[in-house]
Amino acid sequence: MKRIFIHGLVLILLFLSNNVIAQVDPLIEKVSQKLALVNDYVAEGVMKTDVSFIKASLGKVKVYFKKPNLLKVKKEGGISLLPKGGVSVTINSLLNTKQYIALPAGTQQYKGKELRVIKLVPTDDKLDWVISTLWIDPTDALVYKTFTTTKENGSYEITMEYSSYANMGLPSKIIFAFNTKDYKLPNGITLEFGDEDPVSKQKALKNKKGSIEITYTNYVINKGVSNSMF
Amino acid sequence: MSVIQVNQLSKHFGALKAVDGLSFSVNQGEVFGFLGQNGSGKSTTIRMLLSLIHPTSGSIELFGKSLEANRTAILEEVGAIIERPDLYPYLTAKEHLQLFAKLRSKKITNANIDNTLVKVGLMDRSKDKVQSFSLGMKQRLGIAIALVHNPSLIILDEPTNGLDPQGISDIRNLIQSLAREEGKTVLVSSHLLSEIEQMATQIMIIHKGQKVAEGPIQKLLDPTKMIVHVKTTNDAQSLQVILSGSFSNYLLQRKDGIYLRIPDYEIPLLNASLINAGVGLVGVETRNSLEDYFLQVTSNTN
Amino acid sequence: MKAIISIELYKIFRRPRTYIAFGAIAALIMVIQLGLKMDGQSYAAFLMKDINDTLTVDGKVLNGYLICYILLQLLLVHVPLLVALIAADMISGEANLGTLRLLFTTPYSRTQWVMGKFIAASIYTIVLLIWLAFLALFVSMWVFGTDDLFLMKSNYVVLIQEKDVLWRYVGAFVFASFSLLTVTSLGFLMSSISNNSIGPIVGTMSAIVFFTILSTLNIPLFSVVKPYLFTTHMNNWKEFFDIKVNENNEAIYGTILNVAKIKTSLIVLTLHIILFVTASVIITKRKDILS
Fold it and tell me: What is the domain count for chain A?
């Protein structure tokens, strides 16, 4: 229902603002150009998983990227948890496909910055996402936040922070926020009998928001990454 | 010196007085025959001597020391088999001796173990598991366990159970040589009275938990007092003759015939008085065995 | 005392029955390992159904550490029954066989015999546990490899880093040894009461099954007695695999969520062991050996 509504909305928008769509938004172009500087990278970082029903510690990760939209997060010798389908909606994935229409949606204040809000609508039906909103700083052409609705895996909010690699559009921190579903395994399977968990703890676990946060420590850019990594 | 000294020993199981005020002593080097019918309290007494059963009252001294206070030190010098020879079916004969040798503070060498196996005639089966043993072989192994640590006091409860005639003879000789040649004290109980008769120097008979006779075997089986079985054509008439005459004191209360315990010189007089009364006398058998004595003392108490 | 322990161990390990437990554990573990090796992914997928709706789990979830956890969950409920097979036979089995009177006429006190036999049975229990640990942990590590432990509990998931796992298993096995020794001592108590072999074994097994049911049923009526039942505490080895989190919901490396629960359980189990063994000594000392 929601999807049909969004599609309908997009079609109406397309119809009403035909002349706006005709030209590519220069800011998106600027962002794309910045991203185009990076053919591939290997980044090291620390990943934090914050999902109410998951107890995980910080883990070192390596993030591999290759144009146009190959991305892989690997935990060093361990098990990693990533938002399902989340990596397919990173900015690189969104913009590098070039199969979208950009719709300006005004400006918004975000952490003291005046950001331009641009909505992207895919033109290729095969793409997994339905609509994505980008919050872009026009002064440095950096995307600080995206909100993407996917066909299969719900909505993701991705926020980014920048420092050393800002000139190439690479974030120093990226946070995937997403909705989680209930988690419950029957006692008969876990063989956990006896005391039930205290009520307060149960309540805390009902919090349906989850996030995964990667803080990058360094990037190795354009040194070549084998396809076998993905 | 008395090796075993028992005073007023009693054991009650609820209302049942299994042993009731029993006192006796066994001297060093004696083979002490301990007799009693099934359920007479014999095994209970032996188990009390080995501290398997706690006495209700009375005292036991072994080697001049209280068993209760010096149990561990005393048991170092005691070897015993109690009733059935119960052993570990999954162990060999030699392993049994090795295990029980470990439980003694004395140093017991492999040679000691082999000697013991030779003594009881089990050397050629020493490496066989007990599960393949006959009752007689188990009995021999039980005796070997009792002897392996060379104890001063040996308590054997029914040691000839399950043995064939040759085995019985072997064990009898072994017990006698232990006492005679090695000066050991042996307390032996058996239901084979003829065996006890042949090997014991002292005997004690208990009945219903109480002592009914005790003493050197030669004294108990007084050759001047014969046991006589009178066989006649009319037992009722014969009994009348005996009861009316001077022989009534000699009559034994037995249901299987007319028995008298009578000085040997009076036997012809008995014959004459029966014949004179017109009783058809079939025969007068004289007997003087431990079995007869045993039956006599136990039936008197009945 | 050393002599008693050594001959008791000799007897235990010469009995064919002893190896039933070793064989049963090996067979059970190998069957489960084989099953998980052949079709473990579908089992893991089933467990992770809810998680996979939201998250992509990348890595070797079905590794040796998780296999060991699954095995312990399944086996530590049943191993007590195998322990009972030997422990509950230590005194009554000899009474039944008739050999108890041979032992009790040796120059050792009955207290020494009971303690020596208990120590020997405890060593057997520990050896059995080491065998279980070897098969469940080390063989699983070898066959399935190692990775982080991704543990799916009833209400939440714990992801423990690979380096943070092994010491928890050491703790869990030490804890499990207390659990099993409680069973050993209960078997011992039953064994000292009876003169036949089967009664105490069945009695111990029944007691474990009965108390386990009381411990696992969430019925308010039983909640009063639950904290005092040893079966309630026997399963708390699992507490070694729950981890503390800080205010940011980050798991803290090397921590245990509920140390107090483990301590309480160890105290309760130890008290049970002391109680059962002391009762066995008193009963055996006072008993007349009539067998």
Answer: 1
